[in-house]
Amino acid sequence: MEQKSLSEIAKRVLQLMHILPPSETETPRLPPFLDRCAQCNKQLSNRAPIYMYGDLQGFCSPGCRNSRIDLDEEMAKASK
């Protein structure tokens, strides 16, 4: 069984959702919710890994994603 990278799988999912063009010759575009990191607001690229968490939130690094996870956990504890 051929192993595909996570970015290849994500790319195919976005193609199936008609967000990315099917042709490799066209420049693929990211959907609007993946324009910027949900934590630090850094511009995300379709040529670099995007780390996902929660309700379709994209992050530029595992560190940014983990910061948001920690923040969400703290908010959940505070609301109890």
Automatic annotation (TrEMBL):
The FLZ-type domain is annotated at 32-76
Q: Where are the zinc fingers (FLZ-type)?
A: 32-76
Residues in the signal sequence:
none
Which InterPro entries does the UniProt record give?
FLZ1/2/3, Zf-FLZ_dom
List GO molecular-function terms, semicolon-separated. Answer: metal ion binding
- Superkingdom of origin: Eukaryota
Q: What keywords is this UniProt entry annotated with?
A: Metal-binding
Coiled-coil boundaries: none
Q: Does the keyword Hydrolase apply?
A: no
Recorded family membership: Belongs to the FLZ family.
Protein's name according to its UniProt entry? FLZ-type domain-containing protein
Q: Which organism is it from?
A: Musa balbisiana (Banana)
Q: What is the lineage of its organism?
A: Eukaryota, Viridiplantae, Streptophyta, Embryophyta, Tracheophyta
